[in-house]
């Protein structure tokens, strides 16, 4: 089944009043957060022109760990997020809401 067909089927079921089991909804929220972080790390890393290996060196991590973060395959700890923000020369902002998850790296302004 294609993604668009699955999505329309899901939306139709929700419109009919059918709801997802809570564990499925929770898993969907967790995946959404993980994917938002993965995209934010990737976007900031490429904005800086860094490879995964270069970012890993800056953060004191391995390239494999950066790959797992960018692939949404891991849930990083707060200390790891702090290392990433420092290595990406940015402030990490995470906004969590039921249906709106935003993860943003804001570049530090070094102009004096």
Pick out its properties.
58% helix; 112 residues; two-stranded antiparallel sheet; DNA-binding; Lambda_DNA-bd_dom_sf; 434 Repressor (Amino-terminal Domain); DNA-binding transcription factor activity; TransReg_Diox_bact_type; alpha+beta; 12% strand; 5 helices; DNA binding
Q: Give average pLDDT, whole number.
A: 87
End-to-end separation in angstroms reads 55 Å
Strand runs, count: 2
CATH class of the domain at 30-107: Mainly Alpha
Which shape, going by the Cα principal axes? elongated
Task: Report the structural category.
Answer: alpha+beta
CATH topology of the domain at 30-107: 434 Repressor (Amino-terminal Domain)
CATH superfamily of the domain at 30-107: lambda repressor-like DNA-binding domains
Q: Output the strand order for the largest sheet.
A: 1-2
Radius of gyration, whole Å: 17 Å
Q: How would you characterize the largest beta sheet?
A: 2 strands, antiparallel
Please indicate the percent range of residues in DSSP E strands (runs of 2 or more): 5-15%
- Helix tally? 5
* Unreliably modeled segments: none
Binned, the helix content reads 55-70%
Domain HTH cro/C1-type: 41-95
Protein name: DNA-binding protein
InterPro entries: Cro/C1-type_HTH, Lambda_DNA-bd_dom_sf, TransReg_Diox_bact_type
GO molecular function, one term: DNA-binding transcription factor activity
């Amino acid at each position: 089944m294609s993604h668009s067909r699955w999505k329309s089927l899901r939306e139709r079921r929700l419109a009919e009043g059918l709801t997802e089991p809570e564990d499925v909804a929770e898993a969907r929220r967790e995946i959404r957060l993980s994917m938002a972080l993965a995209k934010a790390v990737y976007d900031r890393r490429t904005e800086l022109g860094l490879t995964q290996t270069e970012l890993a060196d800056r953060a004191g991590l391995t390239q494999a760990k950066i790959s797992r973060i960018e692939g949404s395959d891991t849930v990083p700890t707060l200390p790891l997020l702090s290392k990433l923000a420092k290595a990406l020369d940015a402030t990490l902002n995470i906004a969590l809401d039921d249906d709106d998850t935003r993860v943003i790296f804001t570049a530090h302004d070094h102009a004096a």
